[in-house]
Amino acid sequence: MAEGLARAAALVQAARDVVVFTGAGISTESGIPDFRSPGGLWSRFDPRQFTFDKFVASAEARRLYWEMGREVGPVLRRAEPNAGHHAIARMMAAGKVSCVITQNIDGLHQKAGCAAEKVIELHGTAHRVGCLSCTKEWPREEIEGWVEGGVADPRCDACGGMLKPRTISFGQAMPQHETALAFERAAACDLLLTVGTSLVVYPAASLAPAAKQAGARLVIVNLEPTDYDEIADAVVHAKAGEALPRLYT
Ligand code: APR
User: Fold this and answer.
1) Is 35 near ligand 1, meaning CB less than 6 Å away?
2) Hey, whose CA ends up nearest to atom 30 of ligand 1?
3) Three-state DSSP class for 226?
4) pLDDT tens, position by position, 127-185
5) pTM for the complete prediction?
6) Strand ordering across the sheet containing 137-139
7) For residue 246, what are the contacts with CB-CB under 8 A and spacing of at least 6?
């Protein structure tokens, strides 16, 4: 790690405008499992059961979704930012990082002090639930209370529509504004720092080559190798909570 870390730190120090792009790996040290590591969520739940089409088509799929949510919801609410989140918030406060693009739905970047307007949640948030047919929204724990009370398929009390956490599931349309803004910021920065993402889910993963093609440096901090390591200017195979505080002092 030492060699990659020194080079990564030198690139971050020299950068004028760093954009950070995070995935579930930055939150594992906060007790939130990621998806594709051994023991991750997709080793315990079948992702094919959690597509948007299945959710809309089947009451059983929605029951299964809310059942998984009963495990994940409280873990997300109890989770606290870790040293990796705090290091990014410090870099943002110092003006080194202009924006965080995250695939995470846990809100930990904002909880660590990153201004909400500087955090782009590409895959939405698990902390709010919305109606799929109208614009009504609730805090997630309110709807979890309905589910705990025996409502297996919660419906909107205004229009009867299906309720779903405001996360983006496989097959669900990406948020247009956030996606366009993310690619705009990745193309405008002079260094894209990816942290804790396997870079295998698109379109989010294409932020890495898009930034590189626009002339930015690419630094990857991840426990495991990724498909984009070979185009990166620096790669650090380490825990985010250990590497990030040493990237910018
Ligand atoms: N520090 C650094 N890297 C870590 C750490 C850590 N403490 N813990 C795990 N990792 C790495 C893993 O090695 C893995 O490569 O983080 C990566 C997490 O990858 P995924 O589990 O695939 O998560 P992510 O890239 O965010 O997935 C993208 O897939 O299922 C969808 O919508 C979901 O947003 C998610 C998307």
Assistant:
1) yes
2) 35
3) coil
4) 999 999 999 999 999 999 999 999 999 999 999 999 999 999 999 999 999 999 999 99
5) 0.96
6) 137-139, 124-131, 163-167
7) 5, 9
Name the β-bridge partners of 162. Answer: 155
Cis peptide before 81 (omega within 30 of 0): no
Q: Which two tokens stand for residue 231?
A: 């185009």
List pLDDT tens digits, range 214-233: 999 999 999 999 999 999 99
| E-only strand ranges, the chain | 18-22, 97-102, 119-121, 124-131, 137-139, 163-167, 191-195, 217-221, 234-236
CB atoms within 10 A of CB 147: 18
Q: At CA 37, angle to CA 53 and CA 217, rounded to 5?
A: 90
* 40 Cα: distance to centroid of ligand 1 (angstroms): 9
Positions marked active-site: 123
